[in-house]
Amino acid sequence: MSHSDTIPLHSTSQSDIDEIENLINSNPSSVLPARPPSPPRASIPISSAPIPPPAFIPSNLPAPTNPKTAPVPSVSSAAPKPPLPPRPSGPGGNISASGFGSPPNTLTEPVWDTVKRDLSRIVSNLKLVVFPNPFREDPGKALRDWDLWGPFFFIVFLGLTLSWSASVKKSEVFAVAFALLAAGAVILTLNVLLLGGHIIFFQSLSLLGYCLFPLDIGALICMLKDNVLVKVVVVAVTLAWSSWAAYPFMSSAVNPRRKALALYPVLLMYVSVGFLIIAID
Amino acid sequence: MDLNPPAGENYAHPVVCFFHVIFKAAALAFYILSALFFDSFVIIFVVTVLLAALDFWVVKNVSGRILVGLRWWNEINEEGESVWKFECLDQESLARINKKDSWLFWWTLYLTAVLWLFLGIFSLVRFQADYLLVVGVCLTLSIANIVGFTKCRKDAKKQLQAFATETLASRFSSTVQSAFTVV
């Protein structure tokens, strides 16, 4: 739509065209605002292309009021400070950020930024779930930024470790371990939902996957050391750790009278994985 | 949708198109050909699922953004409810998207899902439960992307219509106003 093509009859029609062009060019209201870089992710910087249009800046600000900024000091892996102004991105070797001009939101960030953001999200989720942190009392908020990559890696790693330790039937062991863990996570989530609990499906899958991390470590140690006593001790310790990690999230999701009903299957699954680790030789 | 790529222009982002296709093709090829070379199911499973997961990530985060200007994700809001968010570029940039890019994007997306479905039916017929597991995982990932992007596109179209009616309405009202001022 260019001015040179139209012959204005009189001044008011020119202003119509101006009006329409303004609507097209700066239309924050008709497009879903770009993904606000900071809210639920207090600890992850969004380094997108340089200049944000004014409409997007306010969306950066909610982060400081969000209680999630509290864990920033304890989550030291990601950016050291809450990202109030979006950091300009290092150019790096990137494929994108071309052609689409102005909206400097996650739609136009360089690929490397997306990778870094996802990786740091995995690490921060892991720390939130598995290590002590101030958020365990408010679990719904703690794993707000669920992702399934971490659980995917941990399940595959556990399957691989078990398969490696097995001297026979390696393929079956892997397939069984993977299917057991994946189906187990789904069923445990359904269990909580059916008990009338308030939990989000993917958040719970994500949580149960991250809680496998201690068992991963246990399986790795058991693979390296073949002594039965060592195995039992290691598995017991990591089992307790996994259960401790999963406890607050699962128990707070359901009615207090049904806490045991929600927690028992989780414990059962982890105990069976523990036995699998001990029994494989 | 036509079967042939629109003629008369080249791909605007050939590298991204390449990556968009390569992981899908690699996962399918590896799955189909691996039976000839590898005995171990574990390797087949891990490599295929890894390639499919990488493909999912590339499509969702990179090629969706660059080839068709769409993005979808899930957030959990303050009340603890899960919200699916869809994001698209503004209308002017959407109109500028290379037709060939977007043709390739959508066609490969649908085609891979159909191929995985066929492979799943084969392994079902042969009663190979473990291969069915692999196909199931890859199919889930493909379908997730298809559903996400289709919803995103519908959302973008709705916004386009809303925007167009809004523009038409404002233009109409200002034309009427100008007509009255002339008279």
From TrEMBL, chain A:
Residues 1-103 are annotated as: Disordered. InterPro entries: Yip1/4-like, Yip1_dom. Residues 1-15 have a biased composition (Polar residues). GO terms for biological process: endoplasmic reticulum to Golgi vesicle-mediated transport. Residues 57-79 have a biased composition (Low complexity). The chain crosses the membrane at residues 148-166, 173-194, 200-221, 228-249, 261-280. It is a multi-pass membrane protein. Keywords: Membrane, Transmembrane, Transmembrane helix. Residues 142-275 form the Yip1 domain. It is found in: Golgi apparatus membrane; Membrane. It holds the Pfam family Yip1. This is Protein YIP. Belongs to the YIP1 family. PANTHER family: GOLGI MEMBRANE PROTEIN YIP1, PROTEIN YIPF6.
From TrEMBL, chain B:
The keyword Ligase does not apply. It is found in: Golgi apparatus membrane; Membrane. Keywords: Golgi apparatus, Membrane, Transmembrane, Transmembrane helix. The chain crosses the membrane at residues 12-34, 40-59, 103-125, 131-150. GO terms for cellular component: Golgi membrane. It is a multi-pass membrane protein. GO terms for biological process: protein secretion; vesicle-mediated transport. The keyword Transmembrane applies. InterPro entries: TVP23-like (IPR008564). Golgi membrane protein involved in vesicular trafficking. Belongs to the TVP23 family. This is Golgi apparatus membrane protein TVP23. The lineage of its organism: Eukaryota, Viridiplantae, Streptophyta, Embryophyta, Tracheophyta.
